[in-house]
Amino acid sequence: MPQGFGKTIISICSIQKLFEISHFKKVAYVSKTRAIIDNFRYVANEYEITNLVSINLYTYDKLLKSIDNEEINRNEFDIIIFEDYDHHYITILNKIAQYFDSFNIYFSNTKLSYRQKELLGDNGSIYELSLIDAVNLQIQNFILSGEIDASQILELNYKKQQVGIFNKLLNDDDFFRLRAKEFSGRDEAVWQDFFEKNKWIFGFSLNYTFNTSLDGKKFEQIVNGYSINGNGKRVDVLLQTTGIIKTLCFGEIKTHQTPILKNLKNPYRVDSWSISDELAGGISQLHKAVQKSLENFKSTLPSHDNGYKLYDSIYLYKPKSFLIIGTLREFKNEKGEMHEERFSSFELFRRSISDIEIITFDELYERAYAIVNKKWKD
User: Fold this and answer.
1) Highest mean pLDDT: which of 116-125, 165-174, 199-208, 306-315?
2) Whole-prediction pTM value?
3) Which CATH architecture has domain 7-145?
């Protein structure tokens, strides 16, 4: 049978039905790869088949070696299941089959018939489980070829889980309130903790700082390994200094419930709505954090080199910064229709701020979702 058609599930169901008939005790399951065997073990445990019989798992090579070394008796097993073999394994298969005096199940013939329709009728989740064989084999091939490694799979799984948490924090008020209790009810602290653990959402190769400026101690950690305090040409020091500054990224995090525009019945002027105090304050906080951090950074530099003040030039460069606030739901009514005048007021305002990227929480969620689901390839 082709991969993904449920051979593993058929094996399990066959064992169950044969046990009802003969109450045998010991089974050998033989396949080509460890990945398929591990999957069989998982499905057998899910179906609790191991509570009925003892199952020994082998690859073809391992079982053949055990036979050659006479480590297994001829009547060791009541049933042997050979799964996923092809013509390359015929010689090995015949040798194994001739060695044992037992009842063999071959899925390439009709010694035991179990139709796919019956299979689907046994359990509603069978179709999903039957795909595991093909997926596991594909993953194994990727790992063996060096295209991916196990750590990448674990990392992707972690990111998918975190995107799920992001979605619940954004859309499930009860979940968010429960999480806020862990931070003494401070809503901003919930989001700061989440983003501290998931800086990958914003991008890589940057030193992120949330809701604060960098003091001297934090700068010492960042500049560790650089020789900006050593003796050298002024241009070398400045190049390293500006390089470090360009890796910095300051973030001001509000909450998804923070208003973006002032909640007024009428606009400030016709078609023009004012930004909220929280948005204005967040921008001011970011500007101050960047300025203060650069001043702290200045103290880590030597003050002069050949008569030139080194730190005067660092103000020509600014770290990246962003502000996360509110959601675009603020501009929609219950029918999902956008209030064009309010939204355009916000959009025009944030485009006018060149040194700070203003992002809503739902926009950031879509970015995170795209990262783990490769939506940019569509």
Assistant:
1) 165-174
2) 0.56
3) 3-Layer(aba) Sandwich (3.40)
